[in-house]
Amino acid sequence: MQDYKAYLDETLSFEERAEDLVSRMTLEEKVYQTLHSAPAIERLGVKAYNWWNEALHGVARAGVATVFPQAIGLGATFDEELLEEVADAISTEGRAKFNAQQKYGDYDIYKGLTFWSPNVNIFRDPRWGRGHETYGEDPYLSSRLGVRFVNGIQGNDSRYMKAAACAKHFAVHSGPEDIRHSFNAECSTQDLYETYLPAFKACVQEADVEAVMGAYNRTNGEPCCGSKTLLKDILRDEWGFKGHVVSDCWAIKDFHEFHKVTSTPVESVALAMNNGCDLNCGNIFGNLLLAVRDGLVEEKTIHQAVVRLVTTRMKLGLFDSPEKVPFNSIGYDQVDTKEHLELNLKASRKSIVLLKNENKLLPLDKSKLKTVGVIGPNADNRKALVGNYEGTASEYVTVLEGIKEYLGEDTRVFYSEGCHLFKKSTQGLGQENDRLAEARMVCEMSDVVIACFGLDPGLEGEEGDQGNEFASGDKPNLNLPGLQEDVLKELYKSGKPIILVLLSGSALSIPWADEHIPAIVQGWYPGAQGGRAIAEVLFGEYSPEGKLPVTFYRTTEELPEFTDYNMAGRTYRYMNNEALYPFGYGLSYTDFELSNISINSEEVAQGKEVLCTADIKNIGTMPGAETLQVYVKVKQEGTPNPQLKGLKKVYLNPGESKTITIELKDTAFGLYDNEGKLVIHEGEYEVYIGTNQPDARSIRLTGKKPYSKTLRSNQTVRL
User: Fold this and answer.
1) How many helices (H) and strands (E) does the chain have?
2) Of 9, 73, 589, 600, which has the maximum CB count within 10 A?
3) In angstroms, rounded to a whole number, what is the distance separating the alpha carbons of residues 335 and 123?
4) pLDDT tens digits, residue range 147-181?
């Protein structure tokens, strides 16, 4: 009788089949399955598989794919449905590319179905170079968008995953980049649970994210990729995580080389494996053979890790009859489609934030313009469209190209680079400020000037990424680099109307521009279609609807030390100073009015939901979208500022109105204590309903004060 292979029996559960398959492997075979580049085991019919793939805002590093706005721009949409739609398109393209690559025997890096995205770290400090990979500074917003991104990547088939998502970098990780391999991020248990963990918890418990990636740094003394506290106590025991844990790339060798918590590679791999790190991005887990020999790791621990890894591959349908897996039918014609191009353009439009619009300078009326000046180092910069962890688009539309395309033959567009992005001259032998005369001439020739300044991923990004110019990818300060502000001041002196378009992945300090420039637009890294979207917004084809997912501070000096992970003084939730532009803020070309606002309760109680309801009406002249935002303030000393606890994006035509209801669970009123327990305190709570934060600066900028109501809890409850 032929040997019954339970792992091929598709009537059994994936876990049962994985257990059977792994039980047939030798110790050496198991160990090599824990490397990101897992070799084939031909005698068992196991193909080679490379786990390392990226899909932060499109399938990355594997040829042509739709390149959506960078994650921070997607964060600025405040649009949960859009995030799922974008992630669904990404995983469709991922499957299409995977199917094609498998057909031609390509098992290389960036060719698998395990996407190491999203990055749900908190953008704690605006100097952090990788902040543009995140959804911003707020744990609630990051949770909501992270969950929907994971849902879109993994799909909703009852049996198989379309692709596997990975929440990273777990946890308490947000720079500095240049010391991440040796850095110990110290934070209180309260900050850990209140700020750094919620987005990960939501991805695990609400979205069933398949993987979690550890961070490079230590947290409170433990290296994250071998942390008993993070990986065992919290992730598996407290949250019930069932998927697999992957190390950040080559992070485990940092244990002995830089963190100095172990002495040898063998000790390092033992620490990681014993505390629940299943997969090694890198090759150091080869030392597990020695760790078993030396009695530092039991084979059953490695066995369990490989069962988890094989289970993931089975969920992706990689061991089943091809016809049984619905995603095997996704053809290469699903890559870079017309529909995905349109979705990309939609996402780009929705990400744009209008920061200032004095005397309604925007939108511009092209019928009244004979000449338009476009000036600045980001006007024709493709890198500033895409950010990092990017794919290759089949078409890139810079801001200059988008404006030229939109205006057509009837309007003359004059262009000058204005200055280099960060150097003193644009040409090697040129004198300092060698494009200033040209920029002045463009101003003289133009009816209106669109100034495109900011950053690009060569100035902010990951350590060693794209040859970063500053501080291993971090920003030394929040100022516009190089000569940019000097040139902007010269443009202002021309007396022509100036519109400042900022392309950057993070907040910049622009108090001078706020005081002098009449219109300011934050475009982020808006994706390959970004120039088209920005042109459409500038000329009124589309009303801006983005909201800031980060605080724009006035100065670098007001920030705490970059290495200080205490949340005091950081982000809108804990800052004491007034923001230049606050979290949750963004203007529109149309206007919205809230009415019939109500909160259905007077009290906060365990197990009781509070319903916040409002009618929202577009009372302006353009179609547009607005975000209803609900904030909660615990009215006790030492508690955070009002925190975002509910949001809903709504699109309305002029004169149209809708009733929106946002449900606040009891947890929305809780704060974590120093033991990591969620507590509803006895006392008063203020609930705010509006279209922006309830801070004084937001109210002054928008002229809109959120509705508020005081609720009361009659007892202290630990949830």
Assistant:
1) 20, 24
2) 73
3) 31
4) 999 999 999 999 999 999 999 999 999 999 999 99
Containing 440, the helix (H) or strand (E) segment is helix 436-445
Cα atoms found within 13 Å of the Cα of residue 413, Cβ hemisphere only: 19
Contacts of 178 (CB under 8 A, 6+ apart): 463, 471, 472, 473, 474
**460 has catalytic annotation:** yes
* DSSP 8-state class, residue 41: B
The amino acid that residue 392 corresponds to is T
Per-residue 3-state assignment (H helix, E strand, C coil) for 365-422: CHHHCCEEEEECCCCCCCHHHHCCCCCECCCCCCHHHHHHHHHCCCCEEEEECCCCCC
Co-location of 286 and 379 in the same domain? no
Q: Helix 530-538 and helix 338-351: axis angle, to 10°?
A: 50
Number of CB atoms found within 10 A of residue 201's CB: 19
Low-confidence residues of the chain: pLDDT under 50:
1
CATH number of the domain bearing residue 61: 3.20.20.300
Does residue 515 lie within any of the structural domains? yes
Domain count, the chain: 3
Q: Among residues 177, 390, 460, 536, which one is catalytic?
A: 460
Q: Using CA atoms, how far apart are residues 13 and 279, in angstroms rounded to an integer?
A: 22
Contact between residue 25 and residue 45 where contact means Cβ atoms under 8 Å apart: no
CA triplet 149, 139, 193: central angle to 5 degrees? Answer: 120
Question: Quick check: is 333 in a domain?
Answer: no
Per-residue model confidence (pLDDT) at position 109: 98
Same domain, 567 and 613: no
Helices (H), 252-298: 254-257, 265-274, 288-293
Q: What pLDDT does residue 466 have? A: 62
Q: What is the largest CA-CA distance in the chain?
A: 90
Residue 40 has a CB neighbour count (10 Å cut-off) of 12
In a domain, 102, yes or no: yes
CA angle 80–459–553, rounded 5-degree value = 60
The reported pLDDT for the residue numbered 1 is: 44
What is the per-residue pLDDT across 376-422, written as a single tens digit (0 to 9) for each?
Answer: 999 999 999 999 999 999 999 999 999 999 999 999 999 999 999 99
81 burial level (CB within 10 Å; 0-12, 13-18, 19+): exposed
Residues 54, 172, single domain; the answer is yes
Residue 465, pLDDT score: 76
φ/ψ of residue 252, rounded to 5: -70, -30
Strand, coil or helix: 646: strand
Read off the tokens for 395: 């078409």
Give me the amino acid identity at 401.
E
d(CA 241, CA 227): 15
C-alpha atoms less than 13 angstroms from C-alpha of 624 in its C-beta half-sphere: 29
5-35 tens-digit pLDDT: 999 999 999 999 999 999 999 999 999 999 9
The CA distance from 183 to 178, in Å, is 9
Tell which of 545, 574, 603 closes a domain: 574
Q: What's the burial of 514, exposed, middle or buried (CB within 10 Å: 0-12/13-18/19+)?
A: middle
Q: Which domain holds residue 697?
A: 592-718
Q: Beta partners for 374?
A: 415, 450
Is 358 catalytic? The answer is: no
186 and 55 in one domain?
yes
CB neighbours of 219 closer than 8 A, spacing ≥ 6?
171, 172, 184, 185, 186, 187, 192, 227, 229, 230
Question: Are residues 381 and 296 part of one domain?
Answer: no
- List the one residue out of 662, 654, 585, 661 whose CA is nearest residue 617: 654
Q: Which residues pair with 156 in a beta bridge?
A: none
Structure tokens at 62: 């594997």
